[in-house]
Structure formats: structure tokens, C-alpha cells
């Protein structure tokens, strides 16, 4: 694959002479297990263009984990970062087993906390979540986010195991254990949108677990591998329509039933804030991924674009994080409007939309310097949310 924007066309040196200073990483996804006990058909790790997981060891060696934590501590010290978040990820992170998880979390706190406060989290499918894992998470303050796509029919449409058996009942059993544990351990639910499912029924099925927050994740796709049922000419907006049904149900509820990160972020951005979500806005991205073998990469979702899209080309001589902050691919996600295509810069909602999720902008040739493949949907959703807020303010 020939280099494309930002590797070609983004001049980091020139940005520096104009006053740009690279921001440190603050969030770390650590892939402690590279395999999964499920085989979801949309999974960007196993089912996408990039098949690099096949080269990874199954489990992160303790020595590799400690070395990664050492780099995080050094990086935090060098840049004066007061707090970092470290998310155990996979594959399925619970596949490491009880003792390994306990050792990783203990090591992370021991190595990083003398320098920076550490928030520990995990993204899991919850199938293996038992009382002993919950005891460890409670003792070491590891917050758990669970992936579930709605009710049984919605969830089992994609989230099956290798035998083709839906995982909903097992995920619900894990979630029931989690919701019976101390409330602070439950960080939220992650639901991948499938417009074949009823939106409000999906939302209400998730709401039944009283999550503190729900993340609705648009299926990954780009201009050559479009998301399911999305026409590239913008002639229909199935994802906006789906999300608007949920927005209206959520926004007009008599009480705040939960937070929905995408909607909260759009509302905050409309009111002049920064937003708190990777899918919209122009806030800088400060996240790095440690692969199971200790290699440093960009966010996993990039793997949906092309083989090797998440790779960082580094010397592997000193602190990988200190070196990575200067890579064009990292800088491109920290320069706000400078990283938007001409079409986005001229768009009336660009400060809210921010060109959508970086991953969804990919087009061979122009790389990531394009509007989102969800452009028409984003415009419609943001316009609808803005109109709802305006109507509220005018009636107040
Ligand atoms: S709505 Fe489309 S053109 Fe406007 S900022 Fe978003 S992706 Fe760019």
C-alpha cells in the first residue's frame, strides 16, 4: 500500500515551526490476550482487512506488560501527565485467567502510580465474568465495560461463538453478576449499531441493566468498504434515522435514564464544549495501543481500512511512546480542523462533527483526508439534535 495522507502531505516539522507541540498519550489500551472466545461477524480485529492478530502471542508476557507500564510511567513523567487510564483489552481480556489479571493490575498500579494516578478499566464480552474476577476487579478497582447489542435477537444476530451459537444468555448472566457487584465497577455498555434491529427496543433492552453510560458504535467502514446498508451517495440516512429514534426517546424521557456518550458529546459540542467521544468533535486524540507482543499501535479500528493501517513505524530503541508522539499518523489526530478535508472545512456543522470518526474517512489515494463515509447521517443527526435543543431553549 503506497503511503497516503497523513504519512504523505502532513508536514510535522512545518507544524512545529507554526507552534504545534505534540501532546502526550494519556489513554492506553493494553491487549493482554489476543484471541477471543466469541466470533462476532463484524469484529474489526478478526474479520477485517488487517489479519495481524495471527502474528501475536495469545497472552501478553508479564515481562512485556511490565516494560509497557514502565514506558507509560516514563512518558507520564516526561510530559507531566497527572493521570492515565489503562484499559485491559483483547481479544477477550478475561481469557488471561484470574491470577494473570490480578498480577497485571497489581503491576500497573505499582509501576505507574508513583508517577501518575491510574484508572484501570476493561472492555469485555462478560461471558467469563465470574465472582472471582469481580473480587479482583473490586480489590484493584478495575471498571468494566460490557459489549452487548440489545435484546437476544439483536445481539445474537452477530455476537455468536465459534459453533455459531448466540452468546446473549451468557453475556446477560455475566452482566447480572456485574450489576449485583459494587456499582462503581460497572463503567457502561457498548452496542454496535445494526439498523436491522428496532432502535427503541434495542435502547430499552440495554436500559434494563441500568448502565451509567451507553456507547453506540457505528459499524466500521469507509469509502471502499461501506458499512452495511449505507448508500454512498447520501440518498438515504439509515444510521441517522436509527439514532434519532433513540435520541428522541432518550432526550424526552421525564428523567435522565442513562448517559449516551455520542448524544452527550454532540450536545456539549453544540454548546461550545470539547465533547468526550472519538466519533465527533475536534478534540485531540491521546490514545495508544500496546499489542500483546508489546508493539505499539494506533487504535484497532484502523484495521478496518487496510492491512497494517494501525501500525506505527518506530525504531524500538528508546521509549516507544516518546517517539510515537511525533508520527504524522498521531499528529493528524491532534490538530483539529487542520486535519479536515476541504469539504468538511466548508461544512456548517464541522466544529461539532469534526469529520466524524477518523477511521470512517478512509479512501484509497487520499487516505484519511476525506469526509466521513457517514457524512449525510452525521449532518442529519447533528441538525436534529441542534433543532431539539433550540426548540427547548425557545420554549423555556
Ligand atoms: S457532516 Fe460531513 S462534511 Fe460535515 S464535517 Fe461531518 S463529515 Fe465533514
List the keywords:
alpha/beta; binds iron/sulfur cluster; 396 residues; 9-stranded mixed beta sheet; 14 helices
Protein described:
A 9-stranded mixed beta sheet has the order 7-6-5-4-3-2-1-8-9. The mean pLDDT is 95. It is α/β, with parallel strands linked by helices and 396 residues long. It contains 14 helices and 9 strands. A hairpin with a 5-residue loop joins strand 8 (287-290) and strand 9. The protein has helices at residues 12-17, 62-79, 98-112, 131-140, 152-156, 168-180, 199-207, 238-251, 261-270, 320-324, 328-331, 342-345, 350-353, 375-395, and strands at 27-31, 83-89, 117-124, 142-147, 186-192, 213-217, 259-260, 287-290, 296-297. Helix 3 packs parallel to helix 4 (131-140) and helix 8 runs parallel beside helix 14 (375-395). It is 35% helix and 12% strand. Bound molecules: iron/sulfur cluster. Iron/sulfur cluster binds next to helix 12, helix 13 and helix 14.
Annotate the secondary structure layout.
Elements: H1 12-17, E1 27-31, H2 62-79, E2 83-89, H3 98-112, E3 117-124, H4 131-140, E4 142-147, H5 152-156, H6 168-180, E5 186-192, H7 199-207, E6 213-217, H8 238-251, E7 259-260, H9 261-270, E8 287-290, E9 296-297, H10 320-324, H11 328-331, H12 342-345, H13 350-353, H14 375-395
Helix pairs in contact: 2-3, 3-4, 8-14, 9-14
Counting helices, strands and paired strands, the structural category is alpha/beta
Bound molecules: iron/sulfur cluster
Strand order of the largest sheet: 7-6-5-4-3-2-1-8-9
Number of helices: 14
What's the alpha carbon Rg, rounded to whole Å?
21 Å
**Element order, helices and strands?**
HEHEHEHEHHEHEHEHEEHHHHH
**Count of DSSP E strands?**
9
Any low-confidence stretches, pLDDT <50, length ≥5? none
Strand content: 5-15%
Report the span from N to C terminus: 55 Å
Helix content: 25-40%
Main beta-sheet strand count, sense and barrel state: 9 strands, mixed
Query: What spatial form do the alpha-carbon principal axes imply?
Result: globular
Mean pLDDT: 95
